[in-house]
Amino acid sequence: MLGDISSGDIEILNAYSNLNFSAQKDLRDYLCYLLCKQYKKELIAAIFHNQLLHNMLQSLLYFVERDDFPIQLIEKRMEQIRDIYFGIFEKIHTKYCDLVLGLDSSELVKDFGINNFENINRACRTGNHNLIRLEIVEFYEQYYILAGKNNVKRIAAV
User: Fold this and answer.
1) Mean pLDDT of all residues in the chain?
2) Torsion angle of alpha carbons 81, 142, 51, 158, nearest 10°?
């Protein structure tokens, strides 16, 4: 670890040690704010700008456009998408939760995934092809909207 400290790090530590207690607390609070802001941006970019997830969702969308499709294949593909989605979420959340105490788990991204995967699983359990198609199309449209550049900036600002 000692070899990883740069001259810039030493400069910041020296400046920090010269601050009074309240200024140090303000700096820690601001650093926490910046880390939370970066966390949300990184999380949204990693999930909603992920080309693999986008391609998997798009191929699933094309697959359900057919009149008769095997539900088992839909369930398997959705399980793969869910594993990738929440794998990315957990990786980024773990990276930042060690740095920021009480880190917000970005409920928008988490709830979006949980709700949509549950809706599609529920539709698959009914066996209704039209309902499955509807849920997948809705999931894809919401994913596409959240992947829009303007929406990501708006979400990250919240």
Assistant:
1) 87
2) -110
